[in-house]
Amino acid sequence: MKHRRVRVLMPLSVGELYDYRAPNDLNIEIGHFVTVPLGKREVTGVVWEEARGSDLAEERMKDILSILPCEKLPEESLRFIDWVAQYTMQRRGRVLRMAMSVPEALYPKTPRTGYQITDRVPERMTPARRRVLEIARESGVQTAADLSAIAGVSASVVKGLAGIGALRPVEMSPDTAMDAPDWRHAAFDLTADQQAAADSLATDVVERKFAVSLIDGVTGSGKTEVYFEALAACLREGRQALVLLPEIALTAQWLGRFEARFGARPVEWHSDLGQGERRRNWRDVIEGRAQIVVGARSALFLPFADLGLIVVDEEHETSFKQDEGVPYNARDMAVVRGKIGGLPVALASATPSLESLLNAQAGKYKHLKLPSRFGGALLPDVELIDLKQHRPGPQRWISEPLRQAMEVTLAEGRQVMLFLNRRGYAPLTLCDSCGHRLQCPNCSAWLVEHRLINRLQCHHCGYTAMMPKSCDECGAEDSFKPCGPGIERLSEEAANLFPDRKVAMMASDTLNSPRAAAEFVAAMDRGEIDILIGTQIVAKGYHFPNLTLVGVIDADLGLAGGDLRAAERTYQLLSQVTGRAGREAARGRVYLQSHLPEHPVIDAIVHQQGEAFFALEAAGRQDAGMPPYGRLAALILSGAKAESVATFATELARRAPTGDKLSILGPAPAPLSMIRGRHRYRFLVKCARGVNIQAIIGKWLQGRKIPNDIRLQIDIDPYNFM
Ligand code: ADP
Ligand code: ZN
């Protein structure tokens, strides 16, 4: 008799499906995590589908070895992985690997030993022993490590107590139960606008159907409170919910609000978790114990047992787009995940992406508008400082009107934020005698001086070096001069102007974990910072009640560069920055320093005319056939030898597809023509909206052998054009 055969997918970058025999005694089902022989190895994979029509000879078939003691990968996850792999043109195994990022979670944890207090009192009682016993009495069962850590004593004290029978070992359940969030805990009374939006979302949750809503409200309008009510509805329904945030640093303040609303913490998912936490959280998600998960974009690939809602906060953020590995946009894939699972998706932003805004205007998304700030707080006054008229002195970046405003604000006991989207001391360092620029040896990029750590750094590959004593080109000694400002240099200037004030700096390299972010927020709240200087990371989502003045040092910074979304992004970033000012009773003020006061983006910010700006931007994209009116895909070729990359690029170009709704730009050296020692060439495929861009690229590359020393990365819907 022929045995049942199934196809198994393995989380490998070469991974496609392989046929295996399903032994009768194993009771294999689709979604089971299994071990199978692969060559000489034993590999973990997932039973993906029945192998109908499998025509491999019986004697070449191998048996599935075992089923792992873990819940099955849910059907929705399987279909989602299939979909993402197809859309991004990546191997399924690579996408599966994102869902199986914690291999040890496939095995149940071995039970731990805990210690419990007994009646026996030690003959020799020391203060350390007494502390341990007190803690053991209060807290029931604890591991030896926890007992000694909480008591602040060495592990040998606990061991000693166990040795004389004052503590008794007991087996602890491996997955400790956590407090569940309670939807009744502390709800706010919502305003009429907020209530209408919350009701709409809650209805979708209860009706369990796919629908996308855009929560479009100015900063401080209560978007978070509104989607909290959708989370409450999901809890009431007993289903799981996922909230995606663009930066893990943002989770700190968010977690505090969540706990105030629901009385317990959600489950977190981001790169800052310890290995034990990752394991436990993954397991809690697949077993359905994790009710609300908050995380970075990768949380979208968690194996939810019963997902009932996805929220994407700050949906316009480009950090939802992953460029490396499997390039995907978590915001777009969240919508796909919602469709596959038949569940609602809520996108929230004060400055929605053009894509989402147009979908809302076209009626594809529900448009939930929150037009005013909560509590009547007014949007800040925005004033333009024309740098051509108010030129700061040499090696200075704070203009006189901004300095005066800072002085007044600080005298009122308020806080000031200066925004400059440049890390380090100076973006460029050059030799004063010959003009030689310090450049990264591995990338076509300048080295950035970081004076605090006394290093030059490449922001593309992480290369670091000491500042050279003499110039390589002309031999001049101590001739290197910083050129332009980074936040370190701006801090110096602020400290010089206001020597009695406390200046603090925040950038992605200092604010890189929820803990660091929490400390920084607490310091702001306690008034330990007068002048906060930051890069784009401080623009996002934070709520500082006493911050009333924001100064944007260089409003033009993001406008150059020829990026498709440069204007849109600058508008969003500047609106977010201005949204930090005056979030409570005191009216905020914003000063924009600019050389381009007439630029439509600057004009839209100053006059707070987002709608007009977006209409203009949309018209421009439509004329150019650019997204969201057209489709784009990038092909990036890279290799250690520039010549062979160029040769292969030319060869590909000769076979490039043609069509009237299609154009192919390139090959051209990428703007960043070298990263990490690899030379890069780019193609950009552009076509009309209805065209299947994946099929075109697939046909183009079909049968093409990519040389071993060249890597080809396909990026559908690219956000990065460097
Ligand atoms: P957004 O997410 O739109 O920026 P938030 O949800 O952060 O706005 O709300 C801004 C501030 O107003 C927060 O401190 C929030 O707690 C408060 N707030 C919003 N709506 C209400 C409400 N209905 N009742 C009480 N406080 C509210
Ligand atoms: Zn570099």
CATH superfamily of the largest domain: P-loop containing nucleotide triphosphate hydrolases
Please state the CA-atom Rg, rounded to the nearest Å: 29 Å
Query: Which kinds of small molecule does this entry bind, naming each only once?
Result: adenosine-5'-diphosphate, zinc ion
CATH architecture heading of the largest domain: 3-Layer(aba) Sandwich
Termini distance? Answer: 58 Å
Strand order of the largest sheet: 11-12-10-13-16-9-17
Q: Which shape, going by the Cα principal axes?
A: globular
CATH class of the largest domain: Alpha Beta
Mean pLDDT: 92
Low-confidence stretches: none
Q: Structural class of the secondary structure composition? A: alpha/beta
Write the CATH fold name of the largest domain.
Rossmann fold
The percentage of residues in β strands lies in: 15-25%
Number of domains: 5
Q: What kind of sheet is the major sheet?
A: 7 strands, parallel
Total strand count, please?
Answer: 32
Short description:
By secondary structure, the protein is of the alpha/beta class. The structure holds adenosine-5'-diphosphate and zinc ion (ZN).
Structure description:
The chain has 722 residues and is an alpha/beta fold. Helix content is 30%, strand content 24%. It contains 19 helices and 32 strands. The strands form eight sheets. A seven-stranded parallel β-sheet has the order 11-12-10-13-16-9-17, sandwiched between helices. A six-stranded parallel β-sheet has the order 18-28-27-19-26-25, sandwiched between helices. It has a five-stranded antiparallel β-sheet with strand order 2-1-4-3-5. A hairpin with a 5-residue loop joins strand 14 (321-322) and strand 15 (328-329). Helix 6 packs parallel to helix 7. The model has no long low-confidence stretch (mean pLDDT 92). Bound molecules: adenosine-5'-diphosphate (ADP) and zinc ion. Residues 188-191, 194, 217, 219-225, 374, 543 line the site of adenosine-5'-diphosphate.
